[in-house]
Amino acid sequence: MNPIPLDSTRPHAYPQRILIATVGGSPAVLTETLYVLTQVQNPAFVPTEVHLLTTTLGAEKAAACLLGENGSGQFHAFLHDYGLTGRIHFGAECIHVLRNSAGIALEDIRSVADNEAAADFITEFIRRKAEGDKQCALHVSLTGGRKTLGHYLAAALSLHGRPQDRLSHTLVSEPYETSVPDFYYPHPHDVWLERRGANSKVLSREATLTMAEIPFVRLREGRASREFYGGGSFSEVVRHAQRSIGPVRLHVDLRARQLVFGDTVAQKLSPKLFAFYCWLARRRHEHGAHVWVHPAHDTPLGYLREYARLRDGFATEALEGKYAWALQGSEPTPDQQENWKNDFEQAVSKIKRQFIDQLGDAATPYLVTRGGAPISGYGLALEPDQIRLS
User: Fold this and answer.
1) What is the pTM (predicted TM-score) of this model?
2) What class does CATH assign to 249-389?
3) CATH number for domain 11-173+208-241, candidates 3.30.365.10, 3.40.50.10770, 3.30.930.10, 3.40.50.2300
4) I need a surface site. Which of 84, 236, 325, 349 has the fewest CB within 10 A?
Protein backbone atom coordinates (compact mmCIF):
# COMPACT_ATOMS: atom_id res chain seq x y z
CA MET A 1 0.00 0.00 0.00
CA ASN A 2 1.51 3.31 -1.10
CA PRO A 3 1.79 6.02 1.59
CA ILE A 4 -0.37 9.12 1.22
CA PRO A 5 1.73 11.87 -0.46
CA LEU A 6 2.77 14.61 1.96
CA ASP A 7 1.39 18.10 1.40
CA SER A 8 3.59 20.96 2.67
CA THR A 9 0.45 23.09 3.19
CA ARG A 10 -0.72 20.58 5.81
CA PRO A 11 2.21 20.21 8.26
CA HIS A 12 -0.16 18.82 10.90
CA ALA A 13 -0.55 15.70 8.73
CA TYR A 14 3.17 14.85 8.64
CA PRO A 15 4.03 11.65 10.56
CA GLN A 16 6.78 13.45 12.51
CA ARG A 17 6.06 16.91 13.93
CA ILE A 18 8.70 18.72 15.96
CA LEU A 19 8.23 21.85 18.07
CA ILE A 20 11.46 23.77 18.70
CA ALA A 21 11.71 26.79 21.00
CA THR A 22 14.22 28.77 23.02
CA VAL A 23 13.48 29.49 26.67
CA GLY A 24 15.03 31.74 29.27
CA GLY A 25 13.61 32.50 32.68
CA SER A 26 9.99 31.82 31.68
CA PRO A 27 9.51 28.17 30.70
CA ALA A 28 5.75 28.77 30.52
CA VAL A 29 6.26 29.74 26.86
CA LEU A 30 6.34 26.03 26.04
CA THR A 31 2.96 25.12 27.52
CA GLU A 32 1.45 28.35 26.19
CA THR A 33 2.63 27.49 22.67
CA LEU A 34 1.44 23.90 23.00
CA TYR A 35 -1.98 25.14 24.12
CA VAL A 36 -2.40 27.29 21.00
CA LEU A 37 -1.08 24.63 18.63
CA THR A 38 -3.27 21.84 20.01
CA GLN A 39 -6.38 23.60 21.38
CA VAL A 40 -6.78 26.84 19.40
CA GLN A 41 -5.28 26.18 16.01
CA ASN A 42 -7.53 24.41 13.52
CA PRO A 43 -6.47 21.93 12.34
CA ALA A 44 -4.47 21.20 15.46
CA PHE A 45 -0.72 20.69 15.21
CA VAL A 46 0.11 18.08 17.86
CA PRO A 47 3.90 17.71 18.06
CA THR A 48 5.31 14.22 18.28
CA GLU A 49 8.30 15.68 20.12
CA VAL A 50 9.45 18.94 21.66
CA HIS A 51 12.96 20.40 21.93
CA LEU A 52 14.06 23.41 23.97
CA LEU A 53 17.29 25.33 23.40
CA THR A 54 18.51 27.28 26.40
CA THR A 55 21.38 28.13 28.78
CA THR A 56 22.33 26.13 31.89
CA LEU A 57 20.19 28.42 34.05
CA GLY A 58 17.24 28.12 31.65
CA ALA A 59 17.64 24.35 31.50
CA GLU A 60 17.48 24.00 35.28
CA LYS A 61 14.33 26.08 35.50
CA ALA A 62 12.68 24.36 32.52
CA ALA A 63 13.36 20.91 33.99
CA ALA A 64 12.05 21.91 37.41
CA CYS A 65 8.91 23.71 36.23
CA LEU A 66 7.92 21.71 33.15
CA LEU A 67 9.01 18.19 34.06
CA GLY A 68 9.22 18.23 37.85
CA GLU A 69 9.85 15.15 39.94
CA ASN A 70 8.09 11.98 38.86
CA GLY A 71 6.07 13.77 36.19
CA SER A 72 4.71 16.49 38.47
CA GLY A 73 5.62 19.42 36.21
CA GLN A 74 3.40 21.74 34.19
CA PHE A 75 4.08 19.96 30.91
CA HIS A 76 2.62 16.71 32.24
CA ALA A 77 -0.28 18.61 33.83
CA PHE A 78 -1.08 20.12 30.45
CA LEU A 79 -1.04 16.72 28.74
CA HIS A 80 -3.36 15.31 31.42
CA ASP A 81 -5.79 18.23 31.26
CA TYR A 82 -6.18 18.00 27.48
CA GLY A 83 -6.03 14.25 26.93
CA LEU A 84 -2.60 14.25 25.30
CA THR A 85 -0.73 12.00 27.71
CA GLY A 86 1.70 9.78 25.85
CA ARG A 87 1.32 11.63 22.55
CA ILE A 88 4.08 14.25 22.87
CA HIS A 89 7.63 13.22 23.76
CA PHE A 90 9.49 15.68 25.97
CA GLY A 91 12.04 14.69 28.58
CA ALA A 92 15.27 15.92 30.11
CA GLU A 93 17.16 14.78 26.98
CA CYS A 94 15.06 17.22 24.93
CA ILE A 95 16.38 20.25 26.83
CA HIS A 96 19.54 21.25 24.95
CA VAL A 97 22.06 23.54 26.60
CA LEU A 98 23.80 25.97 24.26
CA ARG A 99 27.54 25.35 24.06
CA ASN A 100 30.54 27.13 22.64
CA SER A 101 33.03 25.68 20.14
CA ALA A 102 34.96 24.04 23.00
CA GLY A 103 31.84 22.23 24.17
CA ILE A 104 31.47 24.34 27.32
CA ALA A 105 27.86 24.99 28.35
CA LEU A 106 26.74 28.64 28.37
CA GLU A 107 25.31 29.95 31.63
CA ASP A 108 23.96 33.04 29.91
CA ILE A 109 24.32 35.09 26.73
CA ARG A 110 26.42 38.06 27.79
CA SER A 111 29.32 38.55 25.38
CA VAL A 112 29.95 38.69 21.65
CA ALA A 113 31.55 35.24 21.87
CA ASP A 114 28.45 33.91 23.66
CA ASN A 115 26.22 35.26 20.91
CA GLU A 116 28.37 33.72 18.19
CA ALA A 117 28.39 30.37 19.97
CA ALA A 118 24.61 30.46 20.41
CA ALA A 119 24.14 31.33 16.73
CA ASP A 120 26.32 28.41 15.62
CA PHE A 121 24.61 25.97 17.99
CA ILE A 122 21.09 26.98 16.92
CA THR A 123 21.92 26.96 13.21
CA GLU A 124 23.47 23.50 13.39
CA PHE A 125 20.54 22.16 15.46
CA ILE A 126 17.96 23.43 12.95
CA ARG A 127 20.04 22.13 10.04
CA ARG A 128 20.21 18.62 11.50
CA LYS A 129 16.48 18.52 12.18
CA ALA A 130 15.61 19.86 8.72
CA GLU A 131 17.87 17.39 6.94
CA GLY A 132 17.20 14.42 9.17
CA ASP A 133 13.73 13.38 8.03
CA LYS A 134 11.81 14.50 4.95
CA GLN A 135 8.60 13.24 6.58
CA CYS A 136 9.06 15.67 9.44
CA ALA A 137 7.51 19.14 9.81
CA LEU A 138 9.20 21.68 12.08
CA HIS A 139 7.32 24.33 14.06
CA VAL A 140 9.74 26.90 15.48
CA SER A 141 8.56 29.30 18.17
CA LEU A 142 10.24 32.65 18.77
CA THR A 143 8.34 33.39 21.97
CA GLY A 144 10.89 32.57 24.67
CA GLY A 145 14.47 33.41 25.53
CA ARG A 146 16.53 36.45 24.72
CA LYS A 147 15.69 38.45 21.60
CA THR A 148 18.99 37.52 19.97
CA LEU A 149 18.14 33.81 20.33
CA GLY A 150 14.84 34.42 18.58
CA HIS A 151 16.68 36.19 15.78
CA TYR A 152 19.07 33.24 15.35
CA LEU A 153 16.16 30.78 15.31
CA ALA A 154 14.41 32.74 12.56
CA ALA A 155 17.64 33.14 10.57
CA ALA A 156 18.44 29.42 10.90
CA LEU A 157 14.99 28.50 9.64
CA SER A 158 15.40 30.83 6.67
CA LEU A 159 18.69 29.16 5.85
CA HIS A 160 17.53 25.57 6.27
CA GLY A 161 13.73 25.53 6.47
CA ARG A 162 11.52 23.64 4.03
CA PRO A 163 8.01 24.34 2.68
CA GLN A 164 6.33 22.35 5.46
CA ASP A 165 8.15 24.19 8.26
CA ARG A 166 6.55 27.05 10.20
CA LEU A 167 7.69 29.98 12.34
CA SER A 168 5.47 31.60 14.97
CA HIS A 169 5.16 33.82 18.03
CA THR A 170 2.61 33.17 20.79
CA LEU A 171 0.77 36.13 22.31
CA VAL A 172 -0.77 36.07 25.81
CA SER A 173 -3.35 38.60 26.99
CA GLU A 174 -2.84 40.78 30.06
CA PRO A 175 -2.55 40.43 32.99
CA TYR A 176 -1.50 36.83 32.40
CA GLU A 177 1.63 37.63 30.39
CA THR A 178 3.33 39.91 32.92
CA SER A 179 1.45 39.85 36.21
CA VAL A 180 0.48 36.20 36.85
CA PRO A 181 3.76 34.34 37.52
CA ASP A 182 2.11 30.92 37.93
CA PHE A 183 0.24 31.02 34.61
CA TYR A 184 1.30 28.24 32.24
CA TYR A 185 -1.83 27.69 30.13
CA PRO A 186 -5.61 28.13 30.34
CA HIS A 187 -6.97 25.20 32.34
CA PRO A 188 -10.16 23.49 31.12
CA HIS A 189 -11.53 23.78 34.68
CA ASP A 190 -11.51 26.56 37.29
CA VAL A 191 -8.01 27.30 38.52
CA TRP A 192 -7.45 30.58 40.37
CA LEU A 193 -4.03 32.20 40.17
CA GLU A 194 -2.50 35.01 42.20
CA ARG A 195 -2.06 38.31 40.42
CA ARG A 196 1.24 39.94 41.37
CA GLY A 197 0.93 43.23 43.29
CA ALA A 198 -2.85 43.40 43.02
CA ASN A 199 -3.94 41.30 46.02
CA SER A 200 -6.41 39.52 43.76
CA LYS A 201 -6.83 36.34 41.76
CA VAL A 202 -7.72 35.55 38.14
CA LEU A 203 -9.13 32.47 36.44
CA SER A 204 -6.51 30.84 34.22
CA ARG A 205 -9.14 29.78 31.65
CA GLU A 206 -10.05 33.42 30.97
CA ALA A 207 -6.67 34.11 29.39
CA THR A 208 -6.65 34.65 25.64
CA LEU A 209 -3.80 33.08 23.72
CA THR A 210 -3.19 33.65 20.02
CA MET A 211 -0.45 32.77 17.60
CA ALA A 212 1.07 34.94 14.89
CA GLU A 213 2.54 32.88 12.08
CA ILE A 214 5.62 34.64 10.75
CA PRO A 215 6.44 34.30 7.04
CA PHE A 216 10.10 33.71 6.26
CA VAL A 217 12.21 33.51 3.12
CA ARG A 218 13.31 29.95 2.39
CA LEU A 219 16.83 30.28 1.08
CA ARG A 220 17.48 26.55 1.13
CA GLU A 221 15.07 25.53 -1.64
CA GLY A 222 16.71 24.23 -4.79
CA ARG A 223 20.29 24.74 -3.62
CA ALA A 224 22.88 22.14 -4.52
CA SER A 225 25.93 23.62 -2.83
CA ARG A 226 27.53 21.42 -0.18
CA GLU A 227 28.93 24.53 1.46
CA PHE A 228 25.42 25.90 1.86
CA TYR A 229 23.99 22.72 3.32
CA GLY A 230 26.99 21.59 5.27
CA GLY A 231 28.19 22.51 8.72
CA GLY A 232 30.10 25.63 9.55
CA SER A 233 29.53 28.69 11.66
CA PHE A 234 26.41 30.81 11.43
CA SER A 235 28.37 33.66 9.88
CA GLU A 236 29.89 31.35 7.24
CA VAL A 237 26.50 29.99 6.20
CA VAL A 238 25.03 33.50 6.08
CA ARG A 239 28.00 34.72 4.03
CA HIS A 240 27.49 31.96 1.50
CA ALA A 241 23.74 32.60 1.30
CA GLN A 242 24.35 36.31 0.85
CA ARG A 243 26.82 35.61 -1.92
CA SER A 244 24.16 33.56 -3.69
CA ILE A 245 21.63 36.42 -3.64
CA GLY A 246 24.04 39.33 -3.89
CA PRO A 247 24.59 41.66 -6.85
CA VAL A 248 24.96 39.83 -10.15
CA ARG A 249 28.19 40.91 -11.85
CA LEU A 250 30.43 39.08 -14.28
CA HIS A 251 34.09 40.03 -14.62
CA VAL A 252 35.98 38.31 -17.44
CA ASP A 253 39.68 38.69 -16.72
CA LEU A 254 41.31 37.81 -20.04
CA ARG A 255 44.88 38.19 -18.80
CA ALA A 256 44.39 35.77 -15.90
CA ARG A 257 41.89 33.67 -17.90
CA GLN A 258 39.60 33.93 -14.91
CA LEU A 259 35.87 34.47 -14.36
CA VAL A 260 34.58 36.30 -11.28
CA PHE A 261 30.89 36.01 -10.36
CA GLY A 262 30.02 38.90 -8.05
CA ASP A 263 32.72 38.51 -5.39
CA THR A 264 33.35 34.81 -6.10
CA VAL A 265 36.30 33.67 -8.18
CA ALA A 266 35.13 30.75 -10.30
CA GLN A 267 37.07 27.56 -10.78
CA LYS A 268 39.09 27.89 -13.96
CA LEU A 269 37.59 26.56 -17.16
CA SER A 270 39.71 24.76 -19.71
CA PRO A 271 41.09 27.08 -22.42
CA LYS A 272 38.51 25.94 -24.97
CA LEU A 273 35.56 26.38 -22.58
CA PHE A 274 36.91 29.72 -21.39
CA ALA A 275 37.17 30.97 -24.98
CA PHE A 276 33.65 29.71 -25.71
CA TYR A 277 32.22 31.50 -22.67
CA CYS A 278 34.20 34.67 -23.47
CA TRP A 279 32.72 34.63 -26.95
CA LEU A 280 29.16 34.69 -25.62
CA ALA A 281 30.00 37.19 -22.87
CA ARG A 282 31.61 39.59 -25.36
CA ARG A 283 28.61 39.36 -27.70
CA ARG A 284 26.26 40.21 -24.86
CA HIS A 285 28.48 43.00 -23.56
CA GLU A 286 29.04 44.65 -26.94
CA HIS A 287 25.80 43.96 -28.79
CA GLY A 288 23.13 44.01 -26.10
CA ALA A 289 20.04 42.05 -27.05
CA HIS A 290 21.48 40.76 -30.33
CA VAL A 291 23.47 37.99 -28.69
CA TRP A 292 21.74 34.75 -29.47
CA VAL A 293 23.80 32.23 -31.41
CA HIS A 294 22.94 28.77 -32.63
CA PRO A 295 25.23 26.19 -34.26
CA ALA A 296 22.70 25.69 -37.04
CA HIS A 297 22.89 29.36 -38.06
CA ASP A 298 26.23 30.67 -36.75
CA THR A 299 29.75 29.52 -37.57
CA PRO A 300 32.51 29.07 -34.95
CA LEU A 301 34.38 32.08 -36.37
CA GLY A 302 33.69 34.31 -33.35
CA TYR A 303 34.67 31.50 -31.02
CA LEU A 304 37.96 31.01 -32.93
CA ARG A 305 38.75 34.73 -32.74
CA GLU A 306 38.22 34.65 -28.96
CA TYR A 307 40.42 31.58 -28.71
CA ALA A 308 43.15 33.33 -30.73
CA ARG A 309 43.24 36.15 -28.15
CA LEU A 310 44.39 33.54 -25.63
CA ARG A 311 47.19 31.99 -27.72
CA ASP A 312 49.95 32.71 -25.24
CA GLY A 313 50.59 29.47 -23.44
CA PHE A 314 48.68 27.05 -25.62
CA ALA A 315 48.44 26.25 -29.32
CA THR A 316 45.40 26.69 -31.55
CA GLU A 317 46.43 24.74 -34.61
CA ALA A 318 44.25 21.72 -33.89
CA LEU A 319 41.17 23.87 -33.37
CA GLU A 320 41.90 25.98 -36.43
CA GLY A 321 42.26 22.80 -38.50
CA LYS A 322 39.00 21.41 -37.20
CA TYR A 323 37.13 24.56 -38.17
CA ALA A 324 39.13 25.50 -41.28
CA TRP A 325 35.88 25.75 -43.23
CA ALA A 326 34.74 28.61 -41.00
CA LEU A 327 38.06 30.45 -41.32
CA GLN A 328 37.87 30.06 -45.11
CA GLY A 329 34.27 31.22 -45.26
CA SER A 330 33.15 27.90 -46.78
CA GLU A 331 29.88 26.08 -46.25
CA PRO A 332 30.35 23.13 -43.90
CA THR A 333 29.73 19.60 -45.00
CA PRO A 334 26.98 17.73 -43.09
CA ASP A 335 29.64 16.01 -40.98
CA GLN A 336 31.40 19.31 -40.23
CA GLN A 337 28.08 20.91 -39.28
CA GLU A 338 27.22 17.98 -36.99
CA ASN A 339 30.64 18.16 -35.32
CA TRP A 340 30.20 21.89 -34.68
CA LYS A 341 26.73 21.31 -33.26
CA ASN A 342 28.00 18.58 -30.93
CA ASP A 343 30.96 20.68 -29.78
CA PHE A 344 28.67 23.64 -29.13
CA GLU A 345 26.16 21.68 -27.06
CA GLN A 346 28.89 19.89 -25.10
CA ALA A 347 30.49 23.24 -24.23
CA VAL A 348 27.16 24.58 -22.94
CA SER A 349 26.60 21.43 -20.89
CA LYS A 350 30.11 21.29 -19.41
CA ILE A 351 30.05 24.96 -18.42
CA LYS A 352 26.69 24.51 -16.73
CA ARG A 353 27.85 21.46 -14.81
CA GLN A 354 31.06 23.09 -13.59
CA PHE A 355 29.34 26.33 -12.51
CA ILE A 356 26.58 24.51 -10.61
CA ASP A 357 29.02 22.10 -8.96
CA GLN A 358 30.79 25.10 -7.49
CA LEU A 359 27.97 27.55 -6.75
CA GLY A 360 24.67 25.66 -6.80
CA ASP A 361 21.72 27.89 -7.72
CA ALA A 362 23.90 30.97 -7.30
CA ALA A 363 25.33 30.08 -10.72
CA THR A 364 21.98 30.49 -12.46
CA PRO A 365 22.42 34.11 -13.71
CA TYR A 366 25.77 33.21 -15.27
CA LEU A 367 24.76 30.09 -17.18
CA VAL A 368 24.49 29.91 -20.96
CA THR A 369 20.77 29.95 -21.59
CA ARG A 370 18.33 29.76 -24.48
CA GLY A 371 16.36 32.72 -25.72
CA GLY A 372 15.96 35.19 -28.51
CA ALA A 373 13.41 35.85 -31.24
CA PRO A 374 12.34 35.18 -33.89
CA ILE A 375 15.00 32.43 -33.99
CA SER A 376 15.96 31.05 -30.60
CA GLY A 377 19.58 30.53 -29.72
CA TYR A 378 22.08 30.46 -26.88
CA GLY A 379 23.68 33.27 -24.97
CA LEU A 380 24.04 35.03 -21.61
CA ALA A 381 20.95 36.64 -20.11
CA LEU A 382 22.96 39.19 -18.12
CA GLU A 383 22.52 42.86 -18.89
CA PRO A 384 25.45 44.38 -20.80
CA ASP A 385 26.33 46.68 -17.88
CA GLN A 386 26.63 43.62 -15.62
CA ILE A 387 29.55 42.34 -17.68
CA ARG A 388 33.09 43.66 -17.54
CA LEU A 389 35.90 42.40 -19.78
CA SER A 390 39.47 43.32 -18.95
Assistant:
1) 0.65
2) mainly alpha
3) 3.40.50.10770
4) 349
